[in-house]
């Protein structure tokens, strides 16, 4: 099957609530009361119902991703209402809906919630575990412990979820190579093994409490974050360890058991169209990209009708994005045939020179018309990708 | 308008050490006097002023003509001639002084005599100006006017007991200054009927009038239609307009005659034709010989100026040409650098002059510039007997062709309180100063005299002086000449490739230290790249310092999902823009500011 079959579309739904905001988080999220949750869900359903479904004629909705925030922090029945709205309003394009994911925080799921999710059609869970070491979790402001996670994970299995992702982080304050190894080993020892693992390095986002804390510690000469060499060692270890555990890396930070890649996330890297609902949610439809307001109160009050940061993507924009997002897929890479098909110009004509330079340096490799980052190329991929911006 | 009796003209300037209150006193004097004589008020001059105002012409220098009703009942014309306040413009100062008959010496009642006070007074006395002192800032708590008066008499040797004790800031005793200007500064002399002899002390390019020449008529007269000749440059032109300086405007008049200060316009297109210090005469009835003291101004400091964006080369050339219309001391010629592409080697009077030009290019002409390290003009004596003046280190002949080299030196006077004599002497020694002597001004202050290489003072000497004397030392210098010196060219190699724009000439014994600092600085400035980059400083083939920029290990975005794409793309765009602003040398990208890093090697 051609990965780039046209007219496939994804849907993202944002739930901006958490029990408590993590110290490193710069997403739109907040802790709020059920009253606010309910108002928000009502607005969200209004937005879904307000979408002109006629625009999507001929499309096939393949995936829905309910992210946050912490979607599991709101009542499960709200999630159920959302899914009902989606399946009703978009009934015409739901025929091939194969992946419906919800992000969960360990400690916020119950057997009852999970049952409601399943009944709503959700078939994939994504747990924000981050670390198997409690002190590391506490340090970044997570509310759960390793035991909480194990309990949630067991409940998920019991509820019948077979497709479960676990998010992990390295470069955490005070994390060492040894504790990272332990986290990976503990996660891979779960019964059953998670079908999917994401391993991200911590990124200090400006304005977050953690960034401020690290900054002030650095001023006093303390640095609890890993240096670059350790960071890369942790990343390289994860690559080889997970491979040994049966996972294959298909994106810079994503590892999956065979055929368990995330359909939804792949659709971003394959530059497919997507529509977003909820506060801050972005959409890319045709040549337009835009997002909703960041303001939760405003959204509830009806601002979901106004789109912000509207970008009209030019041919050059789309070519650049096709490459830099494509390169994120470490095994599939950039499909240069698809490039020709989409843009009616050969990949070589546009990017031949820059590509040859990096192939020669051993940072990119070209096989069967697919351009991929080499292991060294992954480590410095921004430098390479920047050269593909037209 | 008829002739103004010479007896009622006073041409003077105000001289002072920096911050002793020169401009404030000038402002007070202008405030306390009138702008026009009674007769001129009726001469419809105002209409002319209106015209000037419409054209929006403003006067560059603060030279201004004002009218003072003295206590003797007479009306006096004061021409207050501004003098540039920085040692870079010493020659211009001397020409301004030559246009005056006297000088008001402003001395701070608390600080007393400083290095520039002395330098200015000596220069004024050299020009036979009548100098009378004014003690300013008498209202400061730390003011000690009597001590300062005694100091002036002891150190300078001019009468100071009846010096006006004033506060220019608060307008105290300004009248007394005005009266003393009338009484103490001599009226100009000069034969109105002799052939025209006028001194150019400044000039200015105006888009409407062409070059406006500021001059002091020493003898004879000049009016509209007079065919004049610049005696040094040889330019001959017909006068279009003459006039004098109202505050902020040019006020045309019929004639300028001996003793007067004013301006001439003559559709001259380039200030180079009107060199400061040159003598203007009547082409048909020339004077016998020009006024003394003219000299061609030569730049003291050179650097390369390159457009940050190579496509702006033409714009930079146009801007330099425009600035040169107004600044005869600015010199430039095209040069090419392997690292920086096409640009100009530019000559300046000093570092301040360089700063001013660079700032004007950036602000007024909106140019982004890369500047190479400024250097002085070295004299290279070749074995074949030829001597070249080296303004660009890259042009240094190979060592086998060089017999010896010379560098410019200045004689410097540093005034400092005695407690800091030690640290300042140490500083001068570090900067290869030759001690010439020391004089005590009074018990607590000394005047140190040194011969210093110009190369050692152009970057940061003044800052170092201030920091080692807690701000108390003051400094003045003048060019002395060239001395033989052990000089070498220090080359910088980045990833084994010599970067021409980073080479500089340095005293041999300082080379190792400078090379080491340069490498350290460049290591900070050059971002890590995909491979390891050695940075080396070398003299000829001999590497004397080395640093390494480690290879970039990690530059990767952990996450990029639908909502992140716009933002991440912007980051990549920014990264690409950043690369564009880099200069490619071999396969290394060097940020533009690295080329200026030689300037900031100070360790104080």
Can you offer a commentary on this structure?
The complex is a heterodimer of chains A (390) and B (604). The two termini of chain A are 30 Å apart. Chain A has helices at residues 34-50, 76-89, 111-119, 134-139, 146-158, 177-188, 209-219, 228-244, 263-269, 296-300, 315-326, 336-343, 347-360, 375-379, 381-386; strands spanning 8-15, 60-68, 99-104, 124-130, 163-170, 196-201, 248-251, 254-256, 273-277, 282-285, 288-291, 308-312, 334-335, 364-367, 370-373. Helices cover 40% and strands 20% of the residues of chain A. In chain A, helix 1 runs parallel beside helix 2, helix 2 packs parallel to helix 3 and helix 6 (177-188) runs parallel beside helix 8 (228-244). Chain B is of the alpha+beta class and 604 residues long. Helix content of chain B is 25%, strand content 34%. Chain B has 14 helices and 33 strands. In chain B, helix 1 (22-32) crosses helix 7 (174-184). The radius of gyration of chain B is 28 Å and the shape is globular. The chains are: A alpha/beta (390), B alpha+beta (604). Chain A binds chain B through residues 10, 12, 200-201, 203, 228-229, 231-232, 252-253, 265, 268-269, 274, 276, 280-282, 284, 289, 291, 309, 311, 317, 320-321, 324-325, 328, 361, 363, 378-383, 385-387, 389, and chain B through 530, 552-563, 565-566, 568-569, 571-573, 575-576, 579.
């Amino acid at each position: 099957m051609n990965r780039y079959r046209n007219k496939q579309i994804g849907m993202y739904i944002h739930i901006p609530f958490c029990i408590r905001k993590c110290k490193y988080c710069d997403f739109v999220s907040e802790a709020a009361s059920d009253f606010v949750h309910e108002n928000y869900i009502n607005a969200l359903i209004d937005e879904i119902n307000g979408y002109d479904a006629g625009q999507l004629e001929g499309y096939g909705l393949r995936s829905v991703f309910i992210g946050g925030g912490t979607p599991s922090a709101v009542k499960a029945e709200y999630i159920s209402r959302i899914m009902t709205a989606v399946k009703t309003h978009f009934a015409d394009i739901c025929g091939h809906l194969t992946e419906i994911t919800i992000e969960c925080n360990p400690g916020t799921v119950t057997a009852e919630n999970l049952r409601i999710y399943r009944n709503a059609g959700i078939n994939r869970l994504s747990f924000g575990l981050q670390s198997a070491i409690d002190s590391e979790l506490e340090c970044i402001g997570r509310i759960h412990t390793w035991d909480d996670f194990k309990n949630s994970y067991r409940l998920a299995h019991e509820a019948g979820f077979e497709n479960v992702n676990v998010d992990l982080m390295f470069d955490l304050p005070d994390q060492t190579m040894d504790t990272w190894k332990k986290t990976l080993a503990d996660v891979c020892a779960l019964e059953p093994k998670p079908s999917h693992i994401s391993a991200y390095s911590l990124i200090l986002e400006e304005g977050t409490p953690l960034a401020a804390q690290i900054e002030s510690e650095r001023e006093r000469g303390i640095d609890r974050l890993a240096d670059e060499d350790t960071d890369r060692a942790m990343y390289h270890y994860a690559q080889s360890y997970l491979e040994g555990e049966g996972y294959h890396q298909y994106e810079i930070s994503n590892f999956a058991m065979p055929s368990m890649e995330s359909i939804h996330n792949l659709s971003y890297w394959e530059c497919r169209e997507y529509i977003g609902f909820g506060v801050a949610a972005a959409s890319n439809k045709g040549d337009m990209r835009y997002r909703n307001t960041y303001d939760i109160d405003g959204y509830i009050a009806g601002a979901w009708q106004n789109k912000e940061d509207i970008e009209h993507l030019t041919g050059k924009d789309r070519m650049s994005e096709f490459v830099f997002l494509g390169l994120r897929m470490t095994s599939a890479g950039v499909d240069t045939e698809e490039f020709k098909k989409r843009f009616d110009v050969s990949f070589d004509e546009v990017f031949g020179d820059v590509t040859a330079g990096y192939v020669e340096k051993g940072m990119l490799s070209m096989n069967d018309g697919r351009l991929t980052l080499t292991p060294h190329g992954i480590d410095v991929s921004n430098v390479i990708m920047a050269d593909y911006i037209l | 308008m008829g002739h103004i009796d010479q007896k009622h003209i006073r041409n003077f300037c105000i001289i002072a050490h920096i911050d002793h209150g020169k401009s404030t006193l000038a402002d007070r004097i202008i405030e306390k006097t009138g702008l026009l004589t009674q007769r001129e008020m009726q001469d419809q001059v105002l209409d002319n002023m209106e015209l000037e105002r419409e054209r929006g012409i403003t006067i560059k220098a603060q030279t201004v003509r004002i009218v003072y009703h003295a206590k003797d009942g007479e009306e006096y014309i004061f021409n207050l001639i501004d003098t540039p306040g920085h040692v870079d413009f010493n020659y211009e100062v001397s020409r301004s002084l030559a246009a005056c008959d006297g000088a008001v010496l402003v001395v701070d009642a608390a600080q007393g005599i400083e290095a520039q006070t002395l330098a200015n007074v000596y220069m004024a006395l050299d020009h036979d100006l009548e100098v009378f002192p004014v003690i300013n800032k008498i209202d400061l708590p730390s003011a000690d006017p009597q001590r300062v008066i005694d100091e002036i008499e002891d150190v300078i040797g001019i009468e100071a007991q009846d010096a006006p004790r004033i506060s220019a800031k608060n307008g105290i005793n300004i009248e007394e200054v005005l009266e003393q200007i009338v009484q103490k500064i001599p009226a100009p002399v000069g034969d109105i009927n002799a052939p025209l002899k006028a001194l150019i002390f400044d000039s200015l390019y105006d888009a409407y009038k062409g070059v406006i020449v500021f001059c002091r008529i020493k003898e004879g007269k000049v009016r509209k239609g007079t065919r004049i000749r610049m005696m040094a440059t040889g330019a001959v032109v017909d006068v279009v307009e003459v006039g004098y300086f109202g505050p902020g405007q040019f006020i045309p008049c019929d004639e300028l005659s001996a003793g007067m200060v004013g301006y001439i316009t003559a559709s001259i297109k380039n200030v180079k034709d009107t060199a400061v210090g040159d003598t203007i005469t009547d082409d048909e009835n020339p004077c016998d010989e020009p006024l003394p003291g003219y000299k061609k101004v030569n730049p003291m400091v050179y650097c390369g100026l390159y457009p940050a964006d190579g496509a702006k080369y033409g714009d930079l050339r146009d801007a330099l040409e425009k600035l040169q219309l107004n600044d005869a001391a600015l010199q430039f010629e095209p040069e090419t650098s392997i690292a920086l592409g096409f640009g100009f080697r530019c000559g300046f009077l000093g570092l301040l002059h360089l700063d001013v030009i660079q700032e004007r290019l950036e602000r007024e002409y909106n140019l982004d510039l890369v500047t190479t390290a400024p250097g002085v003009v070295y004299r290279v004596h070749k074995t074949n007997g030829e001597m070249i003046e080296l303004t660009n280190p890259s042009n240094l002949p190979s060592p086998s062709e060089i017999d010896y080299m010379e560098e410019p030196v200045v004689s410097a006077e540093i005034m400092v309180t005695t407690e800091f004599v030690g640290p300042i002497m140490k500083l001068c020694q570090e900067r290869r100063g030759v001690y010439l002597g020391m004089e005590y001004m009074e018990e607590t202050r000394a005047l140190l005299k040194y011969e210093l290489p110009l190369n050692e003072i152009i970057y940061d000497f003044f800052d170092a002086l201030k920091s080692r004397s807690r701000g108390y030392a003051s400094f003045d210098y003048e060019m002395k000449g060239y001395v033989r010196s052990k000089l070498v060219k220090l080359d910088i190699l980045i990833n084994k490739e010599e970067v021409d724009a980073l080479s500089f000439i340095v005293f041999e014994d300082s080379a190792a230290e400078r090379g080491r600092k340069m490498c350290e600085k460049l290591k900070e400035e050059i971002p890590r790249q995909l491979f390891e980059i050695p940075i080396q400083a070398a003299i000829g083939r001999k590497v004397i310092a080395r640093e390494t920029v480690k290879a970039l290990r990690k530059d990767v975005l952990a996450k990029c999902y639908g909502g992140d794409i716009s933002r991440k793309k912007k980051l990549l765009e920014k990264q690409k823009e950043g690369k564009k602003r880099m200069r490619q040398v071999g396969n290394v990208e060097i940020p533009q500011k690295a080329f200026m890093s030689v300037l900031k090697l100070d360790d104080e």
